[in-house]
Design goal:
- The chain has 2 domains: 167 residues, 3-Layer(aba) Sandwich (Rossmann fold), CATH 3.40.50.1970; 197 residues, Dehydroquinate synthase-like, alpha domain.
- Strand 6 and strand 7 form a beta hairpin.
- The longest helix is centred in the middle third of the chain and has 23 residues.
- By secondary structure, the protein is an alpha/beta fold.
- A 6-stranded parallel β-sheet has the order 1-8-5-4-2-3.
- Helix 8 crosses helix 12.
- The model has no long low-confidence stretch (mean pLDDT 97).
- The protein starts with 10 loop residues before the first strand and ends with a helix.
- The protein binds 5,6-dihydroxy-NADP (NZQ) and zinc ion (ZN).
- Zinc ion binds next to helix 7.
C-alpha cells in the first residue's frame, strides 16, 4: 500500500426529513447568508419556499441563476454581493454547478485578487467563507470534496482545482430531493460519479490494494445497477439513495488511499467539450471515456483487465469496454461526438483547448496535443 493522506471534514446529514437541522447548522457560522441557487429547478420542486421558511431568522442575500457549467462572470457577481453585504456563510442549494460556484465565491469573498488567478495557479487559496450545501443533483461529489470547476467565458477555459478551505462544513443529502431529476441528467450524473472512480482505478500506480479496490468496485457496480432503476423509476427511493451516497463517496478521497495515481484524463479532455459546446459534463464523459479506454488498451492493460473482470464479469479488456459502452447506451447517454453534433474538423481545436488544462493538471507529458487528438478520433 502506498503512503497517503486522507482528509475529509464534511459533516453529512443523509436521508428523509433532515432539512429541519439546517437552521441549527447555519447558525453556527453567523446570521448573514448568501443563498446560492441555479436557474429554476428549486422553485419548481418547492424547495426554494421551504428554504426561505427555514431561514426566517437569518438575513438572506440571494444569488440565483447559476448556470449548468457555471461561468466566471456570474461568479464575480456573487463575490461582489458577498463582499458588499459582508456575509458570514454561503448556503448552496442545487447540483455541482451551484456548489462549485459557491466555492469560488467563498474564496473570492475573502480575497483582494481576482478569483481566476487561483484557477491559473497564480495564488494559493488560504481561506474561504464557510459553505453549507443542500444537494439536489447527484454526480459531481462537490458536496463532500474540495474541488470545483468554473468556465472563463472570455478565455473559453473550463478549469478546476482543489483547495482544502472550501470543503463544505455540512452537506444535507436527502434522496427525495432528487426524484425530479430527469432521466438524461440522472444518467449523466451516474456516469460522472462512475468515472470519478474508474479513472482512478485505471490510472492507479499500485493495482494491489484490496480494501481500496473493493470500495471502488463496489461503488462502480452499485452505480451501474441503480442508475438503470433510477432512469426508469425516478421516484424509487432505494435507487436514488444508493446513487447519491455512491456519488458522494466517489470523489471524497476514500478511493485514492494507497493506490496512487490521481489523474483524470477523460475529465481533462471532457472539460473542453463542455467549455466549447456547453454540453453536460456527464454526457461529455460518456463520449470521451470509451475512446480513452480504446486508446489505452495496451498501456493500461493490467487495470483495464482488472476492471473488466471485477466490475462487469468479463474476461478481456475488449469485452470490458463493450460492456461499459452498453451500460452507457442502456441508460440513454450519447457515446459518440456525432451524437452531440461535434464534427471531426473541430478535433484539433478541442485538443488544443484540453492541452491547456493538461498543463495545469501536470498531465502534459503523457497527453501532448497529438495524443489528445488520437483519443478524440476514437470518439467519432
Ligand atoms: O439550474 P437548475 O434549474 O437548478 O437545473 C439543474 C440543471 O439544469 C437541474 N437540476 C438540479 N437539481 C435538480 C434539477 N432538475 C430537477 N430536479 C432536481 N432536483 O439539473 C441540471 C444540471 O445541474 P448541474 O448542477 O449543472 O449538474 P451537476 O451536478 O452534474 O454539475 C455539473 C458541474 O460540476 C462540474 C462539472 O464540470 C459541471 O460544471 N464538476 C464538479 C466537480 C467537483 N466539484 O468536484 C467534479 C466533476 O468532475 C465536475 O467537473
Ligand atoms: Zn466529473
Amino acid at each position: 500500500m502506498l503512503n497517503f493522506v486522507y482528509f475529509n471534514p464534511t459533516k453529512v446529514y443523509f436521508g428523509k426529513n433532515i432539512l429541519d437541522k439546517l437552521p441549527k447548522e447555519l447558525s453556527k457560522y453567523g446570521k448573514k447568508v448568501l443563498f446560492v441557487y441555479g436557474q429554476s429547478s428549486i422553485k419548481r420542486i418547492g424547495l426554494y419556499d421551504r428554504i426561505i421558511d427555514l431561514l426566517k431568522d437569518f438575513e438572506i442575500i440571494e444569488h440565483g441563476g447559476v448556470k449548468p457549467n457555471p461561468v466566471l462572470t456570474h461568479t464575480r457577481e456573487g463575490i461582489k454581493k458577498a463582499k458588499e453585504h459582508k456575509v458570514d456563510v454561503i448556503l448552496a442549494v442545487g447540483g455541482g454547478s451551484v456548489i462549485d460556484e459557491a466555492k469560488a465565491i467563498a474564496i473570492g469573498a475573502l480575497s483582494d485578487r481576482d478569483v481566476w488567478d487561483y484557477f491559473e495557479g497564480k495564488a494559493i487559496v488560504e481561506k474561504a467563507l464557510p459553505i453549507i450545501t443542500v444537494l439536489t443533483m447527484v454526480g459531481t461529489g462537490s458536496e463532500m470534496n474540495s474541488g470545483f470547476v468554473i468556465t472563463n467565458e472570455e478565455k473559453k477555459a473550463k478549469f478546476g482545482f482543489r483547495a482544502e478551505p472550501v470543503f463544505p462544513k455540512v452537506s444535507f443529502l436527502d434522496p427525495t430531493l432528487t426524484f425530479t431529476i430527469p432521466p438524461d441528467q440522472t444518467a449523466y450524473g451516474a456516469v460522472d460519479a462512475f468515472t470519478h472512480v474508474s479513472e482512478v482505478y485505471w490510472n492507479k500506480t499500485n493495482p494491489d490494494v484490496d480494501i481500496t479496490n473493493g470500495i471502488m468496485e463496489s461503488i462502480m457496480k452499485s452505480i451501474v445497477k441503480w442508475s438503470k432503476v433510477a432512469v426508469l423509476e425516478p421516484g424509487n427511493y432505494r435507487a436514488r439513495a444508493e446513487l447519491m451516497w455512491c456519488s458522494s463517496l466517489a470523489l471524497s478521497g476514500i478511493t485514492w488511499c494507497g493506490v496512487g495515481g490521481l489523474s483524470l484524463p477523460a475529465h481533462m479532455i471532457e472539460h473542453s467539450l463542455s467549455a466549447l459546446y456547453d454540453i453536460a459534463h456527464g454526457a461529455g464523459l460518456a463520449i470521451v471515456t470509451p475512446g480513452w479506454m480504446k486508446y489505452m488498451k495496451e498501456k493500461r492493460k493490467t487495470t483495464l483487465l482488472q476492471f473488466a473482470k471485477n466490475v462487469f464479469s468479463k474476461d478481456s479488456v475488449d469485452e470490458g469496454i463493450l460492456a461499459f459502452e452498453n451500460w452507457l447506451k442502456e441508460i440513454g447517454c450519447p457515446t459518440r461526438l456525432s451524437e452531440v453534433n461535434i464534427p471531426e474538423k473541430d478535433i484539433p481545436e478541442i485538443a488544443k483547448n484540453a492541452y491547456e488544462l493538461a498543463k495545469v493538471w501536470n498531465m502534459a507529458e503523457e497527453y501532448p496535443v497529438e495524443t489528445i487528438e488520437e483519443i478524440l478520433k476514437l470518439c467519432l
